[in-house]
Write a structure and sequence with these properties.
By secondary structure, the chain is of the alpha/beta class. It has helices at 17-21, 34-39, 46-57, 64-71, 78-82, 89-103, 108-121, 125-140, 143-150, 158-165, 200-203, 205-217, 233-237, 241-255, 268-274, 277-280, 288-297, 301-306, 327-330, 337-344, 367-370, 372-387, 399-412, 421-429; strands at 181-182, 190-194, 220-223, 262-265, 298-300, 320-323, 350-351, 393-396, 417-420. β8 (393-396), α23 and β9 form a beta-alpha-beta unit. The radius of gyration is 21 Å and the shape is globular. The structure holds iron/sulfur cluster (2 copies).
Length: 430
């Protein structure tokens, strides 16, 4: 893959004037913006960022300050939900980042690292398994304990937080399930495909297995297609659209037209991107129709399960649970009721809303790695909301949020457990 794949860019990829014109600068989105709530700066609000995009569209140069304000955005799309004028902020920020990616000359080392992560590591089962094995060795060899006990990472500030955020490797990885079919329990009602994603295959393999079991309990024959790949969400959010398009084409080829009733994901970030494949491939004649058919079948697993008459054979779970909305489920896919309905369907479970549940936790894909300081400030505020409840469990619907909330519990929590909604359903079915 040539370096240039990261910078393939056309006029269609930059923020479109019709999208920019929708903003009437009313400011009703400001309080929904996590970075504005922390900094109180107009330039770090949705309205301010759109204003800066307008200036660039009118010919202003792409300056380091512009890049900084746009990179500090979580792309959480909380502003999109709050906006009464229908501004599609998610489209705008993705397009603005694609323009930055194409026009900004990054240092050679940064370009090389980005190329490796986005186009080689994330879509490659082999590389992901190798990375998981190395991290497993770091954990199991005692090196991690040694590094933590010496306080070495504190010297490097950010590294200490990153180490806390790092996912654990889980073996066997979910790549072992690729190409397999898991039969429905009882009468088959649905034939569904499950997407494994990228990092989740090695760090959330047990969650994926729980997802398969819950679907089987609800009459689904679950296929894990072998030729699927990473959804492209991290690439898309980082402005690397050409790689995201390549991955989208591969997933469409692997899954569209295979007769599935639904194409499922348990990760809200992936689901949000999969549902955008129609737009991403709209200018590719060979793919635009196939991509639209694909999108019609994509469902978040919460959305899918909540639409069924759920198998009621669950045992009671004596737990108090709160729910953190994943931004790409609540704001990206407009799904808030489904996970709450599923939690409330578990006998014995007591559900407690936390304040500001739909405000971002600071995870946002790899934002917590790139913008660690802001991410941690947002996480601190989120943990105050969590600790205002008496919940023993924080449920959520996205693997990235799970890692972030686990770090939050380690730093400021009260020993809460973090679980995916599907994991709680799985426990109730066992
Ligand atoms: S994005 Fe929407 S809510 Fe925010 S200033 Fe523009 S029109 Fe108003
Ligand atoms: S996407 Fe999130 S962080 Fe970015 S401007 Fe909108 S509300 Fe603020």
């Amino acid at each position: 893959m040539a370096v240039s794949e990261l910078t393939v860019y056309t006029e269609l990829d930059k923020p479109q004037q019709r999208d920019l014109d929708r903003c009437v600068h009313c400011g009703l989105c400001l309080n929904a913006c996590p970075t504005y709530r922390v900094l109180g700066l107009e330039m770090d609000s949705p309205r301010g960022r759109i204003y800066q995009m307008v200036q660039v569209a009118e010919g202003a140069p792409i300056t380091p300050s512009y890049v900084e304000h746009l990179e500090l955005c979580l792309a959480c799309r909380g502003c999109e939900t709050a906006c009464p004028s229908g501004v599609q902020y998610g489209r705008l920020i993705e397009a603005a980042r694609a323009e930055i990616e194409a026009r900004l000359k990054r240092p050679w080392a940064v370009r090389t690292l980005r190329r490796f992560v986005f186009s080689t590591l994330l879509p490659s089962p082999g590389w992901l398994k190798l990375a998981a094995r190395l991290f497993w060795l770091y954990e199991r060899s005692g090196l991690q304990r040694l590094v933590r006990s010496t306080g070495l990472l504190r010297l490097f500030g950010k590294l200490q937080h990153l180490e806390q955020l790092a996912p654990r490797a889980e073996f066997p990885t979910f790549f072992d399930a690729y190409g397999k079919v898991f039969p429905a329990e009882g009468t088959r009602r649905y034939k569904v495909a499950l997407l494994g994603g990228c990092i989740a295959n090695v760090s959330f393999a047990r969650l994926h297995e729980a997802t398969v079991r819950v679907l089987q309990k609800n009459g689904c024959e679950v296929h894990v297609p072998a030729h699927q790949t990473c959804c492209g969400a991290l690439q898309l959010h980082s402005g690397v659209r050409s790689v995201a398009r390549r991955l989208a084409r591969q997933n469409v080829d692997a899954l569209a037209g295979a007769g599935f009733d639904a194409i499922l994901t348990n990760s809200a970030g992936c689901g949000s991107t999969l549902k955008e494949y129609g737009e991403l491939l709209e200018h590719e004649e060979a793919y635009c129709d196939k991509a639209r058919q694909f999108v019609e079948k994509v469902r978040d697993v919460n959305e899918f399960l909540a639409s069924l008459e759920l198998n009621p054979n669950m045992r009671p779970l004596n737990l108090t649970v709160t729910y953190q909305d994943s931004c790409h489920l609540a704001h990206g896919q407009k799904i808030k009721a489904a996970p709450r309905k599923l939690l409330r369907s578990i006998p014995g479970l007591r559900f407690q809303e936390m304040p500001l549940a739909d405000l971002c936790c600071g995870s946002a894909g790899i934002y917590n790695v790139l913008q660690t300081e802001m991410s941690m400030e947002i996480l601190t505020r989120k943990m105050e909301c969590v600790n205002a409840t008496s919940a023993q469990v924080i449920a959520t619907a996205n693997t990235g949020c799970m890692l972030q909330l686990r770090a939050g519990v380690a730093l400021q929590g009260r020993g809460q457990r973090v679980a995916h909604v599907v994991e709680l359903l799985d426990e109730a079915y066992r």
